[in-house]
Specification:
- The complex is a heterodimer.
- Chain A is 64% helix and 0% strand.
- Chain A is an all-alpha fold.
- Chain A has one domain.
- In chain A, helix 2 packs antiparallel against helix 4 (76-89) and helix 2 runs parallel beside helix 7.
- Chain B contains 13 helices and no strands.
- The chains are: A mainly alpha, B mainly alpha.
- Chain A binds chain B through residues 28, 31, 35, 38-39, 42, 66-74, 76-77, 79-80, 83-84, 87, 90-91, 94-95, 161, 202-205, 207-208, 211-212, 215-216, 219-220, 276, and chain B through 20, 24, 61, 66, 72-76, 79-80, 83-84, 87, 91, 99, 160-161, 163, 209, 211-212, 214-215, 218-219, 222-223, 225-227, 229-230, 233-234, 254-255.
Chain lengths: 276, 288
C-alpha cells in the first residue's frame, strides 16, 4: 500500500469524518470573537485590527509572581484553544492502532509509512483547527470593518485582564510570528509529543502530560516550558525577561522532529497486537 | 445486590486506573504541601525558638488553616489538583464501566443477576472510588501541613488576606471553628469527587470513545470556566457568584464568592443528570 494512500485514509477518517470536532472548535472561536467584541464595547473602543483580535486569543498571561492574596488569573481562552486541539487529537492514532490500523500495517508491509502518515495527519489536523479559527477571525474582522494588519491598538493592554496592563503598547514589537506562527507551532509540537507518548502509555495519560505542560507554563516563565512561547505576553518583545520567538521556533521544530524520529524508531519494534 | 456491590468495590479499589488517579492527585497534594512548607514553614521554628517572629501579629495568616491545599493559592500543585480532579476521579472506574459494556462483560452479569442491581452496584462503586481518590490525597496533605504549620485561629480582620470573605460558604465557621470548616470542605471535595466519577460514567453513554468520555468532565469544566470569566467581565464584582465546581471547591475564594445554594444546586444537577442517564440509558436499554 502506497504512502499516499495511507495519508488519504488519515485525512479522510482523521479530519473529514471528524468534522464535528472542527465545528465545535469553530463555535468556540465564534464565541470568543463575540466575547472580544463585547469587551471592546464595554471599553468604548470602536476601531480594532486583526492583530488585536489574535492578541486577545493568544495573549496568555504575563509572568506570575506567587502572592498569597493574588491567585493566578488563569487565561482560560488561551488554555481552551490549545487544550481542545490536544483533546480532539489525543485518541485518533491509538484508536486506529487498536482497530483497523493493525490490518493496514499488515497490508502496507511498512510500519514506517503508517507512523509517518499519522504524523502528517497530526500536523494537518492542528493546522486545520488553527486555520479554521483564523478564518472565523478574518470573517469577524470583515464584518466589523476592522483593519487587516497585525498592529496592536493602543488600548489592547487594558482589555486583556491577565496582566497586560503593566506593559505600554507603544513599546511592543510583535507581529505575525508571535500572533500566528508561535501558537500553531507550539500546539503542533505538544500534539506530536502527545501522540509519541501515547505509544508508551494510554492516550489519557498523554493528555494529562499536555495539561501539565500548559499549566506549568502558565506558572513559570522559563525557556524550557514550551507553553511560554505560545503566550504573546511572555514574548521578549513585550516583557524584558520574556522568551525569544527564535528559541521557541528551534525548540518546537526540534521537539516535532524528535517525536517523529523517536516514534518511528520505537514503532519499528512495537507490539501492535498487545493494544486493546 | 450486596454480593454484586462487594465485587464492584473490590474491582474499583484494585484497578490500576484507580491507583493512577490516586497517585496523580496525591502527588499534587504532596507537592503543594512541600511548596507551602518551604514558603511559610520557617515560622514554626521561629515560634519554637521564641524569637521576635513569634510575636508577629500577622501569624494567623501563616497558620495551617491558610496553608493546606484547599486554602493555599500560590502553587501550581493546587491548581492542578483542583483542575485535574474530574479526570483523576473519573479515570478509575468510568473506564471499566465503558470497557465492560464494550467487551460484553455486562451480558454475562445480567444473565446471572438483575440488570438493575448491576447498575446500582456499579454506580455506588464508581461514586465511592471517586470519593476515595479525592479523600486520601486531601488527608495526606492535611497530615503533612498540620505537622509543620501552627494551628493559629484565623483572625476575622484579616479576611482580605485569608480570602474567606463574610458571606462566603461556611465563612462564620472559618473564623469561629476553623477545624470544622476544614472538615466540611474536605467532605465537600470528597462528595464532588464521587459526583465527577459518576458524571464521567454517565458521559460514556453518549460518547462511544472511552478517552473522550473520561476526559469530557475536565473539558466541560474548562469551557464553563471560560464562559463564566467572559460573562463576569460585564458584571458588578459584588454580584458574582462562583459556579464552577473546580473553583468553588477551593476553600478560600479564588475569583468569585462561593454560595451554598450554588454548591448544592450544581451537585443536584450533576447527580440528576447522571442518575437519569444511567437509569434510562443503562437500565432501560437492551444490552444485546
Amino acid at each position: 500500500m502506497k504512502y499516499i494512500k495511507l495519508v488519504k485514509f488519515d485525512l479522510k477518517y482523521g479530519i473529514l469524518k471528524r468534522w464535528y470536532t472542527y465545528l465545535l472548535y469553530a463555535l468556540l472561536t465564534l464565541f470568543a470573537c463575540m466575547d472580544f467584541s463585547f469587551r471592546l464595547k464595554s471599553f468604548d473602543i470602536t476601531n480594532f485590527s486583526l492583530g488585536d483580535c489574535l492578541f486577545y486569543f493568544y495573549s496568555g498571561i504575563s509572568e506570575y509572581i506567587p502572592k498569597p492574596d493574588e491567585p493566578i488569573q488563569i487565561p482560560y481562552l488561551w488554555l481552551l484553544l490549545n487544550l481542545l486541539v490536544c483533546y480532539f487529537n489525543v485518541h485518533y492514532m491509538s484508536d486506529d492502532l487498536s482497530g483497523l490500523g493493525q490490518y493496514v500495517i499488515c497490508r502496507s508491509g511498512k510500519r514506517r509509512n503508517w507512523w509517518l502518515s499519522k504524523c502528517l495527519w497530526n500536523f494537518s489536523s492542528v493546522l486545520t483547527y488553527f486555520l479554521l479559527s483564523i478564518l472565523i477571525v478574518l470573517s469577524f474582522c470583515t464584518f466589523n470593518n476592522a483593519e487587516f494588519s497585525f498592529e496592536i491598538s493602543e488600548n489592547m493592554n487594558l482589555i486583556c485582564p491577565t496582566g497586560a496592563q503593566q506593559y505600554p503598547v507603544s513599546q511592543w514589537n510583535i507581529g505575525s510570528i508571535q500572533l500566528l506562527l508561535m501558537p500553531i507551532l507550539v500546539c503542533t509540537a505538544i500534539s506530536m509529543l502527545q501522540m509519541f507518548v501515547s505509544l508508551f502509555v494510554r492516550p489519557l495519560v498523554s493528555y494529562v502530560v499536555s495539561i501539565v505542560i500548559y499549566f506549568s507554563s502558565m506558572y513559570k516563565l522559563s525557556d524550557l516550558l514550551l507553553g511560554n512561547y505560545a503566550m504573546i505576553l511572555r514574548s521578549d518583545e513585550i516583557a524584558t525577561n520574556g522568551v525569544s520567538a527564535l528559541n521557541g521556533i528551534i525548540f518546537s521544530v526540534c521537539l516535532i522532529f524528535a517525536s517523529v524520529i523517536c516514534g518511528l524508531l520505537y514503532f519499528q519494534h512495537y507490539n501492535i497486537l498487545s493494544r486493546e | 445486590m450486596k454480593k454484586q456491590l462487594k465485587i464492584e468495590l473490590k474491582k474499583a479499589i484494585f484497578s490500576p486506573y484507580f491507583l493512577f488517579g490516586l497517585v496523580m492527585l496525591t502527588l499534587f497534594s504532596v507537592l503543594s504541601a512541600i511548596y507551602i512548607l518551604e514558603k511559610n514553614g520557617g515560622y514554626t521554628a521561629a515560634i519554637k525558638a521564641d524569637t521576635e517572629y513569634a510575636y508577629n501579629p500577622d501569624l494567623p495568616l501563616f497558620s495551617f488553616f491558610s496553608s493546606w491545599i484547599g486554602a493555599e493559592r500560590m502553587s501550581l500543585a493546587y491548581t492542578l489538583f483542583f483542575n485535574l480532579m474530574p479526570i483523576g476521579t473519573a479515570l478509575p472506574f468510568a473506564w471499566s464501566f465503558c470497557s465492560e459494556r464494550k467487551s460484553g462483560y455486562i451480558k454475562n452479569i445480567v444473565i446471572r443477576d438483575n440488570k438493575k442491581n448491576y447498575y446500582k452496584a456499579k454506580t455506588i462503586a464508581i461514586f465511592v472510588s471517586g470519593m476515595i481518590v479525592v479523600l486520601i490525597p486531601l488527608l495526606i496533605n492535611i497530615l503533612i501541613v498540620s505537622s509543620k504549620m501552627p494551628l493559629y485561629k484565623p483572625f476575622a480582620g484579616y479576611n482580605f488576606y485569608n480570602c474567606v470573605y463574610f458571606g462566603d460558604l461556611f465563612a462564620d465557621l472559618y473564623y469561629s471553628n476553623p477545624g470544622i470548616y476544614v472538615s466540611l470542605y474536605v467532605a465537600l471535595n470528597t462528595l464532588y469527587g464521587g459526583l465527577f466519577a459518576v458524571l464521567g460514567a454517565a458521559f460514556s453513554f453518549y460518547i462511544s470513545n472511552i478517552f473522550s468520555a473520561v476526559l469530557l468532565p475536565f473539558v466541560i469544566m474548562l469551557i464553563l470556566a471560560y464562559t463564566e470569566h467572559a460573562f463576569q467581565a460585564y458584571m458588578f464584582a459584588g454580584d458574582i457568584v462562583e459556579l464552577i465546581p473546580t473553583q468553588f471547591l477551593h476553600a478560600s475564594t479564588l475569583y468569585a464568592n462561593s454560595s451554598g445554594i450554588v454548591v448544592a444546586a450544581v451537585a443536584i444537577i450533576i447527580l440528576t443528570f447522571s442518575f437519569f442517564t444511567i437509569y434510562f440509558k443503562g437500565v432501560k436499554n437492551e444490552i444485546y
